[in-house]
Specification:
With 491 residues, the protein is α+β, with helices and mostly antiparallel strands. It has three domains: 7-236, no CATH class; 243-316, Nucleic acid-binding proteins (OB fold (Dihydrolipoamide Acetyltransferase, E2P), Beta Barrel), CATH 2.40.50; 329-490, no CATH class. It has 19 helices and nine strands. The chain has helices at 7-10, 23-39, 49-68, 74-84, 103-116, 128-144, 152-158, 167-179, 185-194, 202-218, 228-236, 282-287, 318-348, 359-370, 377-388, 426-432, 434-437, 445-453, 468-486; strands at residues 242-243, 250-257, 261-266, 272-276, 294-302, 305-314, 355-358, 395-401, 405-409. The strands form two sheets. Strands 1, 2, 3, 4, 5 and 6 form a six-stranded antiparallel sheet that branches. Strands 7-8-9 form a three-stranded antiparallel sheet. α8 (167-179) crosses α10 and α18 runs antiparallel to α19 (468-486). The two termini are 45 Å apart.
């Protein structure tokens, strides 16, 4: 039987997987896109048949968004213009028509879909297979654009005026955007990976529910590293201000409650906060609220009001509360130490943003004799074992950030072209500097921004059939976008 996309497949990408008036048309169109992807050999970069089917659906959903005029993709142009002073990353847009099908848009989206499946493999957006499939898909959409139907249900869903003042309606749209929309494949993959292998009990269900809401409110793993609220606000024009200041579980005493709110007081700092009562489980309100004294919960702000979300525990024991107070106090002391360390570092480095060392002796000399730090023998052994034994050739670079503290890089130190880096090696840098831009587990996002802001990675290049210099220009012109994209989950 010929491979195709059925309406039931198409519905998977729509809110609530509901039937819509244009399902048959767009599922047929997605089948044509699927045929292109299969015939043009996209399996060379998309390994799984299910991934190719999913790509066909997502690309067709992009076209539906364009035909509906719902503006999700237009956010890409707006943000790229504001951040990077260009309409799109990677591609020439001298011939480009915003709001209409463009080859460049399809190629960027297909690249994002493919890259989302790989954490250990960097895909060149100019990959010839991607480019060939993109042109063939564009020809289909260009032919259909003037007559393609609008999906009234999607238009109503995304233009609902209640999005600006109704938390529950806004949450429904944010959840769809974060987990099911064509733009958020990486978030969906992250959410699926967070689930337990097998849901065994009610607690596992609660954990999955909490993870779903955390991804909905706070995840940034998409093309622009925006939260769902930020992207939807830009697309719809409705204010959707999500505040994650209290997203981590904290312990509160229950002061009072009425028909609208529960007044909580943080047991550590005594700050009071009103939380909408309808955000709590009705069963908890009935069975536990009248006798509850302490709750541990997570709170999200939305347009000036606060809502409970995710897991919650009632009346935890004294042992837990003492550990909680100690943990919060340690976190606050750590924040004070970070600011102090940042000041010491800049003084010790004589204003240089980075200090390069080789081996544990140079590391200890900088910390003890230049920063004036008091370090123990245990600290030295730990650094020697966990840092320098894993560091390439025993090298490391250090920088300080006022919010993150002392940052350490052990990856590709010879690729950093600072005038005062004695270990810089141009031949090495041409082969390895890119790793610093695409390796979020190797360093902090702020550390990478320091490298880019100071133009310390001028040799970073993508492998390109057009040669090293072209691959280098592609990276240099898009280095900040790439940093934002590959480090999105750490922002």
């Amino acid at each position: 039987m010929k491979n195709r996309i059925y309406p039931k497949d198409w519905k998977e990408i729509h809110p609530g997987h509901a039937d819509m008036s244009t399902d048959f048309y767009y599922s047929q169109l997605a089948s044509r896109v699927l045929a292109v992807l299969e015939n043009d050999g996209i399996d060379a970069v998309l390994d799984e048949p299910a991934w190719i089917r999913d790509a066909a659906v997502r690309i067709t959903a992009w076209f539906e968004d364009l035909c509906n005029g719902t503006g999700l993709w237009s956010v890409v142009n707006t943000v790229c213009r504001n951040r990077y002073n260009r309409l799109l990353p990677f591609f020439d847009t001298s011939v480009y028509y915003p709001g209409e099908p463009n080859v460049q848009d399809i190629q960027l989206l297909l690249w994002d879909i493919i890259q989302s499946h790989y954490t250990d493999r960097i895909i060149n957006p100019e990959n010839p297979g991607i480019a060939m499939a993109t042109n063939d898909i564009f020809n289909i959409f260009d032919e259909e654009y003037e007559t393609a139907p609008e999906t009234d249900e999607m238009i109503a869903f995304l233009t609902n005026p209640a999005l600006a003042n109704d938390y529950w309606q806004a949450r429904k749209v944010m959840e769809w955007f974060a987990l099911d929309s064509y733009l958020s494949l990486s978030t969906r993959i992250s959410f699926e990976d967070s689930k337990p292998y097998k849901v065994k009990d009610e607690y596992d269900n609660i954990r999955v529910y909490h993870s779903m809401l955390s991804h909905t409110f706070f995840d940034r793993q998409n093309l622009l590293a925006l939260t769902s609220a930020e992207w939807l606000s830009a697309a719809t024009g409705h204010k959707m201000d999500v505040d994650g200041t209290l997203k981590q579980s904290r312990a509160y005493s229950i002061v009072s409650y009425n028909e609208e709110t529960v007044l909580l007081r943080d047991i550590h700092n005594e700050k009071e906060i009103k939380v909408q009562i309808d955000s709590f489980d009705p069963r908890w309100l009935k069975q536990y609220l009248p006798k509850a004294k302490i709750v541990t919960c997570c709170i999200v702000g939305f347009n000036g009001k606060n809502y409970h979300f995710g897991t919650m525990f009632t009346n935890p024991g004294e042992e837990y509360l003492e550990k909680y107070k100690e943990t919060i106090a340690n976190e606050e002391r750590q924040q004070d130490n970070i600011k102090y360390t940042a000041e010491l570092f800049l003084k010790a480095s004589e204003g240089k943003p980075i200090v390069f060392v080789k081996g544990i002796d140079e590391f200890m000399d900088f910390h003890i004799n230049k920063m004036g730090s008091k370090v123990s023998d245990e600290f030295r052994k730990a650094m020697e074992q966990h840092l320098f034994q894993n560091a390439e050739s025993g090298m490391a670079a250090f920088m300080s950030d006022s919010e993150a503290g002392l940052l350490t890089i052990t990856l590709a130190i010879p690729a950093i072209k600072a005038s005062y880096n004695p270990y810089y090696d141009q031949e090495y840098a041409q082969k390895n500097a890119l790793n610093l831009i695409v390796s979020p587990d190797a360093m902090d996002y702020s550390a990478l921004c320091t490298l880019l802001d100071n133009n310390y990675l001028p040799d970073a290049a993508l492998n390109s059939l057009k040669g090293y210099e072209h691959g280098r220009e592609l990276v240099q012109q898009n280095s900040q976008f790439m940093a934002d994209y590959y480090f999105s989950q750490h922002r």
